[in-house]
């Protein structure tokens, strides 16, 4: 058994060696797009467009990431990103839920990485999203710089940047191979705050190297840390299999996905703080459930918590006990 290395260069190689095949993607088409509802800062429930842009893979090799599956190995041509936005918005134009509210431009990496999103395309991108009140993009904290302000200046609405904190546990964060410290995260968050750019933070629920009790404790601490850094939104992402590396860690007893109850408890903790909105990522949620009897009701409860930002009583299940 090949143990997980101690140094970043060796970690990169270990992670890459365990990857499954990359999915074929088209630089002129988004990998996916969808409409969803989200509770806005005002308390309103707003229609939110999410476009998963196809672009060059992120230069970091994070241990838990599987987003690279839908990326390219080279920079997209000029005009490709605006064309992807046109494609997605054109196919959602007939829906009442597509009325301008928020749009998320997620690119499986960093929007402000010029090798992923060409800077020359910023004006064309901004033109296509000008009807939305809020534009949300994602970025590695190391790339929060003047390009953020350059893009923000082109938008009539509000810009929000989503940063992956992942965890406030300093040792686990280092092992995730994100090549970022908590101080560097604070600095990026402060840059956004100083320039009036909104901050959304991604937090992993049960990253590798933590047991279930530690996972909940550090999810709560990470939520606290995110709000201390000025976040108005925290998105909780249950860590899931699928990138090869996590399967390798699981074989060594170093990772298992969180139980649904851990995600529920972390979300309830964050909402009760009333320091900002806290959402649970519900994609593929059934994978975290051990009980088919209570899962539909628990999924519905989490959806309602996301929208209402309330904490209804946990469900009692005679079969599983609500684990």
Q: Care to describe what's here?
A:
- With 323 residues, the protein is of the alpha/beta class.
- The chain has ten helices and eight strands.
- The protein has helices at residues 8-17, 80-92, 122-128, 146-152, 170-175, 182-194, 212-228, 245-251, 260-273, 295-308; strands spanning 32-39, 45-52, 102-106, 134-139, 158-166, 198-205, 233-238, 277-280.
- The chain has an eight-stranded mixed β-sheet with strand order 1-2-3-4-5-6-7-8.
- Helix 7 (212-228) links the parallel strand 6 and strand 7.
Features of this protein?
323 residues; alpha/beta; TIM Barrel; eight-stranded mixed beta sheet; globular
Mean pLDDT: 96
> In percent terms, what proportion of residues is strand?
15-25%
Number of helices: 10
- The number of strands is 8
Structural class computed from helices and strand pairing? alpha/beta
CATH domain topology: TIM Barrel
Largest sheet descriptor? 8 strands, mixed
Q: Low-confidence parts lasting 5 or more residues at pLDDT below 50?
A: none
Q: Which strands sit side by side, in order, in the main sheet? A: 1-2-3-4-5-6-7-8
Helix content: 25-40%
User: For the CA atoms, what is the radius of gyration?
Assistant: 19 Å
Give the end-to-end Cα distance, rounded to a whole number of Å.
Answer: 32 Å
- CATH homologous superfamily heading: Aldolase class I
Elements, N to C (H/E): HEEHEHEHEHHEHEHHEH
> So what's the CATH class?
Alpha Beta
Shape: globular
In total, how many domains does the architecture comprise?
Answer: 1
Corresponding CATH architecture: Alpha-Beta Barrel
């Amino acid at each position: 058994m090949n143990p997980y290395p101690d140094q970043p260069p060796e970690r990169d190689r270990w992670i890459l060696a365990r990857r499954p095949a990359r999915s074929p993607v088209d630089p002129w088409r988004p990998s996916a797009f969808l409409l969803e509802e989200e509770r806005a800062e005002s308390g309103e429930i707003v229609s939110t467009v999410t476009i998963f842009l196809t672009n060059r893979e992120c230069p970091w090799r994070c241990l838990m990431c599987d987003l690279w599956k839908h990326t390219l190995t080279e920079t997209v041509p000029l005009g490709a990103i605006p064309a992807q936005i046109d494609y997605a918005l054109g196919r959602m134009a007939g829906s009442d839920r597509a009325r301008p509210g928020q749009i998320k431009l997620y690119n499986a990496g960093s929007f402000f990485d010029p090798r992923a999103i060409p800077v020359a395309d910023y004006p064309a991108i901004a033109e296509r999203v000008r009807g939305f009140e809020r534009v949300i993009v994602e970025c590695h904290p190391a790339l929060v710089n003047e390009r953020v302000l350059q893009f923000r200046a082109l938008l009539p609405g509000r810009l929000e940047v989503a940063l992956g904190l992942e965890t406030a546990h300093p040792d686990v964060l280092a092992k995730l191979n994100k090549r970022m410290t908590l101080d560097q995260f604070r600095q990026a968050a402060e840059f956004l705050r100083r320039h009036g750019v909104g901050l959304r933070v991604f937090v992993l629920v049960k990253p590798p190297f933590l047991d279930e009790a530690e996972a909940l404790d550090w999810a709560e601490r990470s939520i606290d840390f995110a709000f201390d850094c000025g976040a108005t939104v925290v998105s909780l992402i249950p860590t899931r299999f699928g990138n090869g590396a996590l399967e390798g860690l699981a074989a060594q007893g170093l990772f298992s996905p969180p139980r649904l109850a851990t995600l529920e408890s972390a979300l309830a903790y964050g909402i009760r703080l009333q320091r900002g909105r806290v959402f649970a990522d519900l994609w593929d949620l059934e994978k975290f459930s051990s009980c088919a009897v209570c899962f539909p009701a628990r999924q519905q409860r989490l959806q309602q918590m996301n929208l209402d930002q309330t904490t209804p009583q946990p469900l009692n299940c005679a079969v599983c006990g609500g684990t």
